[in-house]
UniProtKB/TrEMBL annotation, chains A, B:
Protein name: Transcriptional regulator
InterPro entries, alphabetized: cNMP-bd_dom, cNMP-bd_dom_sf, Env_Response_Regulators, HTH_CRP, RmlC-like_jellyroll, WH-like_DNA-bd_sf, WH_DNA-bd_sf
GO cellular component terms attached to this protein's record: cytosol
PROSITE patterns with a match to the protein in the record: CNMP_BINDING_3, HTH_CRP_2
Domain Cyclic nucleotide-binding: start-end pairs: 14-107
Keywords: DNA-binding, Transcription, Transcription regulation
Pfam hit, one: cNMP_binding
Positions of the HTH crp-type domain: 147-214
SUPFAM superfamilies (UniProt xref): cAMP-binding domain-like (SSF51206), Winged helix' DNA-binding domain (SSF46785)
Gene Ontology MF: a single term: DNA-binding transcription factor activity
Organism: Paracoccus kondratievae
Taxonomic lineage of the native organism: Bacteria, Pseudomonadati, Pseudomonadota, Alphaproteobacteria, Rhodobacterales
DNA sequence: TACCATATTTGATCTGGATCAACCTCCGAC
DNA sequence: GTCGGAGGTTGATCCAGATCAAATATGGTA
C-alpha cells in the first residue's frame, strides 16, 4: 500500500487514536486495490469479510428487493463502509458498487474485531463511528417519513451548499442516484428542482447555486435533528 | 432498585458480560422510577444524560418536525434505548414517551461511557448493540423505500406471528401507532388490513391470526435482509 | 467530428395513499 | 347502566408522486 494512502487512513477518526503497533498490524493484513467503475464490490447477503476504506473514487451503497432498487448512501473518500456488518460478523444488508474508478483498501473483518479487543482507543473510535452512523440513519428515516419530496431535495441542497462559494457547487453524483437516495423517481427529482426555482435555487446541469438561501431555508425549515452537517472539508 | 429488576438488567446482552464490580458500580449510579402512561421521558434536542432501560410497560420513540409526527419504534421490556446519543454525548434525535405505566431505570450517560472504557466485555457488548441497532435501522429504511404499504404491514404481521400459536397474537400497540411506525395513516392501515384478508390474514380487534401463512408469504416475499427476526421470547 | 448509448427533461396520465367527513365501537368514569 | 371521548372504520374525494411515452441533452468513443 502506498505510504500516502496509509497516512490518509491514519487520519480518519476511526484510526486516529490507535496505537501505532495496532495500526501497523491492521494495515499489514490489509491490501489496497484499484477497481474500475461500475464494479460490484459487495453483494447484499454475503458474509462481511472485509471492512472497506474508500481512498479515491466513490462507492454507492444500495439495496434491492424483488425487482426494486434503492440507493442508501454514496461514500466518498476518505471514509469507511460496512463497519456494522463487520463488527457483528453478519451478512451485509446492502450491496456496494464503484461509481468511478476507485482505490479501495480492504481490511479483514477478523483483524478489525481483534484490534477492537486489543486497542482501547480503537474501541472507542469504533463505537463513536457506529453511533454516528446510527444517528445519521435515524436522520435519514426521519427525513423520509416527515418531509415531502421537494423538502427533502431542498434540505439536501442546503446541506451541500455549506461549503460552496458564490459559484455554487457541483452535484457529487448522477441525478438518478440522488433521486433514489432521496426516495423519489428521476422524473420527480427533475420536477422538484423546477419547483425550487421559485425558492432560491438555480440549477444548470450538475451545478447548483443557492441564489436566495433565506428563501430556501424558509421553505425547508432545516433542523439540526434532521439534517446532519456535512463533514467533508 | 429491586433485586429482581437488577437481575433482569443483568441478563440483557448489553450487561451480561460485564464484570460484577463494573456492573455494581453502574447500578449504583442508576435509579429506577415508575412513570404514568403518556409521560414524555425525553424530548428530542435535549442533551443525552441517561441511558434508559425499560423494565415494565412500553415506551414509544417518536420524532417530529414542524407539525408532523412519526413513530420510530416501540420499546418493550426488557430493553435499553438511546444508547447512541449517550455514547456520542449528543442531543437526542428522538423523543420518548411511556405508552403505559412503566418502570424505567435511568443510568447516567457519563457512567455508561466510563464503564465502556473500563470494562472490555461491556465495550464489546456496546458495539454489538449499536451495530445491531444500526442494522435494524437499515432494514427499516429499506422497508420504507422498497415496499408499499400493504407489503410493509404483511411483513410486520409475519414477523410478529413467529411466536404466535393457533389462536394468533395480539397487536402490541394501538393501530394508530403501528400505522405511523409503518409510515402510513390510520385510514390506510385499516384498508391494508382489509386488503390482506384475501391473503391469509384474519383480524378481530387487536387479535390477528395468520390463517394462510403461505399465501401471505407469497405476497410479502419476506427476506432476512429486510425483516429482522423478533427476539422477544 | 460524428455517432451512439445513457441520462435528463417534459408532457400526459394514472394511482397509492392522504385527507376530509361521518359514523361506529369500545371502554373507563361516574 | 349510560355517558363521553378517543380509537377505529368506511366512504368520498384529492393530490403528490409514480408511471408511461417521447423528446432532448450529455458524455464517451470510434
Amino acid at each position: 500500500m502506498r505510504e500516502e494512502d496509509r497516512n490518509d487512513i491514519r487520519k480518519l477518526t476511526l484510526f486516529r487514536n490507535m496505537t501505532s503497533p495496532a495500526f501497523d498490524e491492521l494495515m499489514h493484513a490489509a491490501y489496497d486495490q484499484v477497481f474500475p467503475a461500475q464494479l460490484e464490490l459487495v453483494r447484499q447477503g454475503e458474509a462481511a469479510n472485509f471492512l472497506h476504506v474508500v481512498l479515491e473514487g466513490a462507492v454507492e451503497l444500495y439495496a434491492n428487493w424483488q425487482d426494486r432498487d434503492t440507493t442508501m448512501a454514496v461514500v466518498q473518500p476518505v471514509a469507511t463502509f460496512i463497519l456494522a456488518a463487520c463488527m457483528r460478523d453478519a451478512p451485509y444488508l446492502m450491496s456496494a458498487r464503484t461509481l468511478q474508478r476507485s482505490r479501495i483498501v480492504l481490511i479483514p473483518a477478523v483483524d478489525v474485531r481483534a484490534a477492537f479487543s486489543r486497542d482501547p482507543g480503537f474501541a472507542l473510535a469504533t463505537v463513536q463511528e457506529l453511533a454516528e452512523g446510527y444517528r445519521s440513519l435515524v436522520r435519514h428515516a426521519k427525513n423520509l417519513k416527515l418531509r415531502n419530496a421537494r423538502e427533502r431535495l431542498g434540505a439536501y441542497l442546503l446541506q451541500r451548499s455549506d461549503y460552496a462559494g458564490a459559484q455554487g457547487f457541483v452535484l457529487p453524483q448522477e441525478k438518478r442516484l440522488l433521486a433514489s437516495y432521496l426516495g423519489m423517481t428521476p422524473e420527480s427529482l427533475s420536477r422538484a428542482f423546477k419547483a425550487l426555482r421559485d425558492h432560491g435555487v438555480h440549477i444548470d446541469g450538475m451545478r447548483v447555486t443557492i441564489t436566495d438561501p433565506a428563501a430556501l431555508k424558509a421553505l425547508v425549515q432545516t433542523d439540526s435533528l434532521l439534517d446532519s452537517p456535512l463533514n467533508i472539508p
